[in-house]
Write a structure and sequence with these properties.
single chain; alpha+beta; 2 domains; 4-stranded mixed sheet; 3-stranded antiparallel sheet; 26% helix; elongated
């Protein structure tokens, strides 16, 4: 009898342990189902951005977007951080394909220039964390915003706002860059200016090449290089900028002359005062040929080519 009681007691204890384990596994699985995203906040001085990881639990894209907008408008439970849209609830948002369109209140226009650019960077980078969202449009009382260069607040991508993920405070700067893209026929370059908010720890030359790869934002210039190109390394010494790209760069889906594509990078980089010449290398290729017709000699140093730039009338 005593042995039977011991056996029953052991079985009961085992059953309780099994039940607890199943409950634990069920809870863990429920937590694991949440989607992890980085949400960007302004620091207390409003001079930089900080990212924090949060979970989204909604199954639909619209539901996850709504949760994300809540994070952007409600302050984090952490002293020293400010939600980008604190006190400015989004009046409405819609999703069209891979674009999310926000309707913000009139108070958004009261932000000073730097704070607005940081706020915009935080909003765009956060929303583009959603897998199905690639672009963000911001409207205030139904109207698009326009910066001093005439860039509208529509179809904005995270490439426009260079940042480093992490929990550290980031020092952001506001800069105007001089870039070159293609004319409609792909035979010439056209110059344009763009204002970007970027991490001051990232070299200016890297940011410029990133912007060229990302392509134009306006209606009167056209992309020059493969947007899937990856930057392997960029080093500047003695006024020479050496750019190492991956093999994706060699193929180009755009109808442009090879020289136009090459000098969109060279001319953009040489607008930086410390750079006079550019060397383009391809990772793993000793004698690369761009677009099957334009050899990239590793020994050749390229200088700005003004003859290929379309003159303004």
């Amino acid at each position: 009898m005593r042995d039977n009681k011991r056996l029953y007691t052991a079985l009961a204890a085992a059953a309780v342990c099994l039940l607890c384990l199943l409950i634990y596994i069920g809870c863990s699985s429920s937590e694991d189902r949440g989607t992890q995203i980085h949400v960007f906040y302004l620091n207390s001085e409003e001079t930089g951005l900080v990212s924090r990881t949060h979970s989204l639990n909604a199954e639909s894209l619209y539901g996850r977007a709504a949760e994300t907008m809540d994070y952007l408008s409600q302050g984090p439970v952490e002293e020293g951080l400010k939600a980008p849209l604190m006190g400015m609830d989004c009046e409405e948002f819609t999703i069209e394909k891979d674009v999310i369109i926000l309707e913000l209140p009139a108070a958004y226009r009261d932000l000073d220039t730097i704070t607005e650019k940081l706020t915009r960077a935080a909003i765009v980078n956060t929303l583009c964390e959603l897998e199905e969202i690639n672009r963000v449009t911001i409207r205030v009382k139904g109207a698009l915003l326009m910066d001093e260069q005439g860039n509208k607040s529509e179809n904005m991508t995270s490439d426009q706002f260079i940042y480093s993920t992490g929990n550290e405070m980031l020092s952001y700067e506001n800069a105007e860059v001089h870039l070159y893209f293609a004319t409609e026929d792909g035979k010439k370059l056209v110059e344009t200016y763009r204002t970007v908010v970027y991490n001051a720890n990232i070299p200016m030359e890297r940011m410029v090449v990133e912007q060229v790869i990302a392509g134009p934002k306006g209606d009167f210039n056209y992309p020059t290089v493969n947007e899937n190109t990856k930057i392997v390394n960029i080093v500047t010494r003695d006024n020479i900028c050496t750019v190492t790209l991956d093999k994706t760069f060699l193929t180009n889906p755009h109808e442009v002359d090879p020289e136009v594509a090459i000098y969109s990078i060279v001319n953009s980089l040489t607008e930086i005062p410390s750079i006079r010449q550019v060397q383009i290398l391809i990772e793993g290729e000793e004698e690369p040929v761009f677009m099957d017709s334009y050899p990239l000699d590793a020994e050749t140093l390229l200088q700005k080519n003004t003859n290929i730039v379309q003159t303004r009338e």
